[in-house]
Amino acid sequence: MTLFPALLEQQLEANSIRKTLPAETILLQENTYVRSIPIVLSGSIRVMRQDEEGREILLYYIRPGESCIMSFLAGIHEDTSKVRAVVEEEAEVLFVPVAKASEWIRQFPEWTDFIFKLYHQRFEELLSVVNAIAFQQLDHRIMELLKKKVQIYQSNQLAITHQQLAEELGTTREVISRLLKQMEKKAMIRLSRNKITVLSLL
User: Is the pTM of this model over 0.85?
Assistant: First the structure.
C-alpha cells in the first residue's frame, strides 16, 4: 500500500487481515454489527440499500484506495450496518479492526484526513443518488450505471443480466428489459445472453 505515511502503513499491515474475495462475495449485511473496516486494494465493491420489501438500490462503488464510510461509522458507534456490501469484481481487501480504526484517528492526522475525505465523497455520491431518483428518468439512470460499470471493468462488454440491473436500480426486470431494447434500437448498446455491449452512451 502507498496510501499513507510509512508508520501508518506499518500499523495497517501489522494489525489488519488481507483477503482476496471472488465476485458476489457478501462483505457486509444490513442489521449486522461491524467488526472491521474494509480498505479495497484492488477490484471493486458495490454498496446497496434494501427496503422492507427486499428491493435494493445501488448507493455507490468502493474502488482501490477507498473504504466504506458507512461501515466505519457503524463500527465506531457500535451500531449495526445500514447497508449491504457485495464484491463487484474479484477484490483484494484489507480488513482493519474497528478498535484500531478508531484509535488511529487520535494518533494519525493522515488517517483522520482519509476518513473525512471519504465522508465528503460518499455524501456527494448519495446526493447524486437522491437527485437521480427524484429528477431523472430511468433510462438516464441506466445509462449512468452502465457508464460506471464500463469504467470499473475497463471494458465495454459487461457480463450483467437485466435482473441485476433492475436490482441495482430498484425497479423490475420487465421495465429494464423494455428500456434496454429501446436503447439497442438507438444503437447505444447491443444485447446478448447475460451480456450488454456498450456502443455509445453519449
Answer: no
